[in-house]
């Protein structure tokens, strides 16, 4: 069965850290660029970051996460990570990973509806 499974979400205090994981099964993730997206209550889904299939290029969408979030991947483990530091209440959202087959397009320019696979999401809550 082809799927992406996120894990690592939870409740954390402001200023804390979490590391999200996104593990693929049923397909080889190293043929895919991977993105992290999030959706807060009452808000539209937004892109957080994406990483190229080989890990050489990583992009962060929006100034709000730059310098605080780091995306990485381990293709040997078929897993992508999102390290989130200095978390703020406004980071509270459901976080989703998604994979799109690698192409000539830089992942940051790929619309969400063109991603091939999506995970079910993991809740991140930042609150004191």
**Extended strand count:** 11
Shape: globular
Computed CA radius of gyration, to the nearest angstrom: 14 Å
Distance between the termini: 39 Å
By DSSP (H or I, 4+ residues per run), the number of helices equals: 0
Order of helices and strands: EEEEEEEEEEE
Secondary structure: helix percent: under 10%
Assign the structural class, choosing from mainly alpha, mainly beta, alpha/beta, alpha+beta, or little secondary structure.
mainly beta
The major sheet is characterized as: 7 strands, mixed
Beta-strand percent range: over 45%
Unreliable stretches covering 5 or more consecutive residues? none
- Averaged pLDDT: 95
If you had to describe this structure to a student in words, what would you say it looks like?
There is one protein chain. This protein is mainly β and 128 residues long. The chain has no helices and eleven strands. It has strands at residues 3-7, 10-12, 18-25, 32-39, 46-51, 58-60, 69-74, 79-84, 93-101, 117-118, 122-126.
Name the features.
seven-stranded mixed beta sheet, 11 strands
Q: What are the SSEs and their pairings?
A:
Blueprint lengths: L2 E5 L2 E3 L5 E8 L6 E8 L6 E6 L6 E3 L8 E6 L4 E6 L8 E9 L15 E2 L3 E5 L2
Parallel strand pairs: 2-11
Antiparallel strand pairs: 1-3, 3-8, 4-5, 4-9, 5-6, 7-8, 9-10, 9-11
Can you summarize this structure?
The chain is mainly beta and 128 residues long.
